[in-house]
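Human
Can I borrow your eye for a moment on a structure tokenisation matter? Give me a protein, with the fold worked out from its sequence. Write it directly below this note and I will take it from there.

Assistant
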Amino acid sequence: MPSQIAARLKADVIAAMKAKDKERLGVLRQVQAAIKQVEVDTRVALDDAGVLKVLQAYAKKVRDSIEGAEKARREDLVAASQAELALVKSYLPAELDDAELAAIVDAAIGEVGAAGPKDLGKVMKAVQPRVVGRAEGARVSAMVKARLAGRS
């Protein structure tokens, strides 16, 4: 099944071309290239879930470049990368707030019967499918660790 996100991306590339918006067009083409690279590597047309994974990886790469630019005190690069990140985030589902994430983590802990930090893997395995695209892995892991620490 073709990806609706990729189709929206393609339409936005065409719109950016017509509007002569070079910055937006450049970012959208980079995202399209990243998606195409994964499709070529895996020899499979990506569905929405696959496209979301690529978008998340791309967003993480941009966040890392923002961090590096801030350390180097390159405000011009920081501003450009933040604009790029905002554009990429517009294709991702809305992020979970801490209360929603905590509720999902608590439900998963109850389902797998986790007793303490040693059950981190089981809980993460139960939580990840529910939060895919809506929360960063490091944030989910930190929340699970915090919740499990209180149970040991």
